[in-house]
Amino acid sequence: MRFADTIKRGMATLTGTSLTLVQNTRLSPNLAQIRFEGAIQAADWNPGDKLKLNVAGVLRSYTPSQWQDGALQILFHLHGQGPAAQWAAQAQVGETVSFIGPAKSLPPAQASDWHLLIGDPTTVGLFQALHQSARAPCHGVVELAPEDAPALDALGLPLKAVAQDGALEWISDWQPPSGPGDVVLSGEADRVRAWRDALLAQGLDKRWIRLKPYWSRRGKARRKAVEREMKGA
Ligand SMILES: Cc1cc2nc3c(=O)[nH]c(=O)nc-3n(C[C@H](O)[C@H](O)[C@H](O)COP(=O)(O)OP(=O)(O)OC[C@H]3O[C@@H](n4cnc5c(N)ncnc54)[C@H](O)[C@@H]3O)c2cc1C
What we know:
This protein has 233 residues and is an alpha/beta fold. 30% of the residues lie in helices and 35% in strands. The protein contains 7 helices and 12 strands. It has a 7-stranded antiparallel β-sheet with strand order 4-3-7-1-2-6-5. It has a 5-stranded parallel β-sheet with strand order 10-9-8-11-12. Helix 5 (167-173) packs parallel to helix 6 (189-201). The two termini are 34 Å apart. The structure holds flavin-adenine dinucleotide. Flavin-adenine dinucleotide (FAD) binds at residues 50, 58, 60-63, 74-77, 79, 81-85, 105, 122, 125, 212, 214-217, 219.
C-alpha cells in the first residue's frame, strides 16, 4: 500500500462514518449499484459531491448517485484492475465500510437553459445525481461498452451510449441548444481534456464548462496533472 493511502486509511478509521451494505445490484456486466445505510443526513450532501470510501484497505473517491436520510447509493465501474473495483464486484450484504465526506468535487452550476453531460462508466452515478436535481433538460453521451449501454435506460437517463472514444465524433456533430448552457465533462482525464478542447474549438463559451477528471489510463499523478493544467487554462 502506498504511504499516502496508509495515512488516509488511518484518517478514515479515525473520522469515517460507518455504512452497512444493504444491496448490491449488477445493473450491467461492468456496473454495480450499491446501496448503503447508516447515520447520514441528506442536508450534508449536494448532487455531484464526492466521498472518500474506505474499502479493501484503500481510500478511493466515489460520487453518490442518490442520498437520502439514512441511505445512499453509489454506481461502481467494475473495471477489474484495482482493489475498489474488485471489492465492489463481489461485496456482500451486511459488509460495513467507512467514508470521509461528503466534499465538493465539481464547481457549482450556474443558471442555465440546458445541461450537456459527457462522460464514461465512472460518471453514470454522477449523471444520475445531476439529472435528478436538474432544473433544465439534460442531454449528452456516455462512452460505454455495448453490454453496459442498457444501464442508461434502466436508470432513466436521457443520455446516449457511444463506443469507447466515440464522444469526440458525437461532439463534432453537436449543435448547442439556444440559451446559456451548463456543460459537465468527467471521466478519464485525457478524454475530458480532448472533449473540452473540441467544444472550445467549436466556439462553446468556456464559462459554461464544469469538469472533473475521475481517473487516468496513465495513473493518479497524470489525473492530477491534467486537472491542474485545465484549471490554469
Ligand atoms: C471525485 C471523484 C469521484 C469519482 N466517482 C466515481 C464513481 O462514482 N464511480 C466510479 O466507478 N468511479 C468513480 N471515480 C473513479 C475511481 O475513484 C477510480 O476509478 C479509482 O481509481 C478506482 O479505484 P480502484 O482501487 O478500483 O483502482 P486503482 O487502484 O485506483 O487503479 C488500478 C489501475 O486501474 C486503472 N483504473 C482506475 N480506474 C479505472 C477505470 N474506471 N477504468 C479502467 N481502468 C481504471 C488505473 O489507471 C490503474 O492502472 C471517481 C473519482 C474521483 C476523483
